[in-house]
Write a structure and sequence with these properties.
Layout: H1 2-14, H2 19-30, H3 38-50, E1 55-59, H4 65-73, E2 78-83, H5 86-98, E3 106-110, H6 113-116, E4 125-130, H7 137-147, E5 148-157, H8 173-186, E6 191-196, E7 202-207
Parallel strand pairs: 1-2, 1-4, 2-3, 4-5
Antiparallel strand pairs: 5-7, 6-7
Helix pairs in contact: 2-5, 3-4
Length: about 210
């Protein structure tokens, strides 16, 4: 355990965050919207770059930190970001503007993801990033797997729930939802999944050919 903690700390400290994202992080913390860590953000950016993503959906805008990391890795992508809080969307809009992200590369949707996602086009996106309402995470991931193109990615940060998922005694709603999501997806023949345990954790999923019609 001590070795893991040291490795995790090293990974966190070794990650360099672009200045524009660091500024957005400061604003996020000021407004109480806890952003993803830089260690997870850098993983997200790498995956977006490797996927050559041009179309991304983000569920849970926050203050724009995760969106900036996604666009950092995919500089030609269009990001559709969904949040039920207008204040979050306004803050993210300012963060994207400060980062000189062209307005045409972002779409802001105010609403509950459970209402918005069913109306979005199937198999049309390269990445779906899920970071909202932990109790609904399984539903959002199901939508995400429907929305991504063959070979597209569904990414879910915070799945370790601060270490709670590894504690079998913890049975609260959030912990149970993340634990079930990890166990069900990593054991499923319909998806290929991997779990990064750096920082708050990142679940990475893609569909298999067998899961497509």
């Amino acid at each position: 355990m001590a070795g893991h903690d040291a490795s995790d700390r090293f990974a966190r400290e070794a990650t360099t965050e672009p200045e524009v994202i660091a500024r957005a992080r400061t604003h996020a913390l000021e407004m109480g919207a806890e952003p993803i860590s830089a260690a997870v953000g850098s993983q997200v950016a790498l995956l977006a770059a490797a996927a050559r993503a041009t179309s991304i959906v983000e569920i849970g805008t926050g203050a724009g930190v995760s969106g900036l990391w996604l666009l950092h890795g995919a500089p030609r992508a269009i990001l559709t970001t969904i949040d039920k809080e207008p204040e979050n969307l306004a803050t993210a809009r300012r963060a994207f503007s400060d980062a000189r992200v062209a307005p045409a590369r972002t779409r802001f949707i105010t609403g509950r993801a459970s209402d918005v996602l069913p109306r979005m086009n199937e198999a049309s996106y390269d990445i779906v990033f899920v970071d909202a309402d932990p109790e609904g995470v399984i539903e959002y991931v199901e939508h995400g797997l429907r929305l991504v193109r063959p070979g597209g990615l569904v990414l879910v940060p915070r799945v370790l729930a601060g270490g709670a998922v590894a504690d079998p005694v913890r049975r609260d709603g959030v912990t149970t939802a993340y634990r079930s999501l990890i166990q069900e997806t990593l054991s499923s023949a319909a998806v290929i999944g991997a779990l990064s345990i750096v920082a708050e954790g990142l679940l990475q999923l893609t569909t298999t050919d067998e899961s497509r019609p």
